[in-house]
Write a structure and sequence with these properties.
Layout lengths: L1 H26 L7 H29 L6 H7 L4 H13 L2 H15 L8 H31 L4
Helix pairs in contact: 1-2, 1-6, 2-5, 4-6, 5-6
Length: 153
């Protein structure tokens, strides 16, 4: 299970870096092909879906109702809020990212965000990538807090 958790975290890091690149690509598209942004958006959507699937696998182990599970250790420890607040938020928040990115994919494929008349579409694309980055960084922080409180075994 540790291997899945490590891969999940690594993919989350790659995802955050890819989002930073997508923000830059969407913010400054003038005189460039949109193809790299479109490919990046599709790859990010696939990546976050795979990352979420692996996270769900880790979560099943984490959530087991046995005394040695990470959930039980956190709830019995001195910081039960780590589970009550952080994990409850993290487990649901991550599933919004593929949906947000699907909308971003639609925007960068439907609109030529390089054109001045599509300035609003460009702002929407940048905003969707930025919101995704904030959520991804929050999830990475929460994952580090959970892992430091009760490592997955």
């Amino acid at each position: 299970m540790i291997a899945w958790a490590v891969i999940h975290g690594f993919l989350g890091t790659l995802f955050a870096m890819g989002l930073a690149i997508a923000i830059w690509q969407a913010q400054f598209p003038a005189h460039r092909s949109l193809r790299p942004l479109q490919v990046n958006a599709i790859l990010l959507t696939v990546l976050v879906t795979v990352k979420d699937f692996l996270g769900d696998i880790v979560y099943v182990t984490y959530r087991k109702d046995i005394p040695s599970s990470a959930r039980s250790l956190i709830l019995a420890g001195s910081r039960p809020w780590v589970h009550e607040i952080v994990m409850e938020y993290k487990e649901h928040m991550a599933h919004f990212l593929p949906a947000i990115l699907l909308v971003a994919v639609a925007v960068v494929f439907v609109y030529d965000i390089r054109a001045p008349e599509n300035r609003t579409a460009r702002r929407v694309a940048v905003s969707l990538f930025a919101v995704s980055l904030v959520l991804a960084l929050a999830a990475l922080f929460m994952g580090a807090l959970l892992t430091s409180t009760a490592p997955v075994k």
